[in-house]
Design brief:
- The chain is an alpha/beta fold.
- The protein has 9 helices and 8 strands.
- The longest helix has 15 residues.
- The radius of gyration is 17 Å and the shape is globular.
- The two termini are 28 Å apart.
């Protein structure tokens, strides 16, 4: 693993251009649906109705992310790695993700995913070209341990992780661009100068520098990609 950068505040430069770190949310941003990873995993186990009810409680009643995880763990007691892979492959991904990340890498910039979803799902994006992925810490599969509530990410954790990634890649927070869709992205949208609301809900109104509705990440990225050349 890369060691933390030594010049956190300066930003690595490629010629005369500061390098950019692009930060992507997962659920609702790269995948359609506000709890898409949980929905796809639950579909594999035949508990779609149960996870839908839990998501409604999360959205309407303010259920804490760690409580959502604990209760989802109960629904997913028999989950296997093969089912996670099937859920990943069958998810309604936006088009063009790998194209966007290939382009980011080719320009010498960085891309990372920060998500409240389980780390065992989020890390499957590494082969697609992400430099780093961060998800909520869940027990290893097959489950023999309970969820550690302290390992479940929340909105504030996204900003903390973004700062850690800036240190790792020697990029300033002012040179980051965030992509998100909902309340869990509000804090990070408020922390960076450029942010793209992708198929977003009302929680990001007024926080995004750009708004995109559609099914192709290449189109969403074009709103800010041209600014960084």
């Amino acid at each position: 693993m890369d060691s933390p950068g030594k010049h956190i505040g300066e930003g690595t430069r490629d010629g005369d251009r500061a390098r950019t770190l692009y930060l992507f949310d997962l659920d609702g941003t790269l995948i359609r649906g506000s709890a898409a990873a949980a929905v796809e995993i639950s579909r594999q186990l035949g508990v779609s109705a149960e996870i839908a009810a839990l998501e409604r409680e999360f959205q309407a009643a303010g259920l804490a992310p760690h409580e959502f995880a604990v209760r989802a763990r109960e629904l997913w007691a028999e989950l296997t790695a093969a089912q996670v892979e099937a859920a990943f492959e069958g998810a309604p991904w936006l088009a063009g993700i790998r194209d966007v990340w290939d382009g980011i890498r080719a320009r010498g910039d960085y891309c990372a995913v920060i998500s409240l979803s389980p780390d065992f799902f989020v890390r499957l994006l590494l082969p697609w070209g992400a430099h780093a992925t961060h998800g909520s810490r869940w027990p290893a599969l097959p489950f023999t341990q309970p969820v550690d509530r302290a390992g479940i990410l929340d909105t504030a954790a996204k900003v903390r992780i973004a700062r850690e990634l800036c240190a790792r890649f020697e990029v300033r927070l002012d040179d980051c661009v965030a992509f998100g869709d909902s309340l869990s992205d509000a804090a990070i949208f408020a922390s960076v100068p450029r942010a793209v609301a992708v198929n977003a809900d009302h929680h990001l109104t007024g926080l995004a520098s750009h708004t995109y509705t559609g099914g192709d990440l290449r189109e969403a990225f074009a709103l800010v990609g041209r600014e960084r050349t």
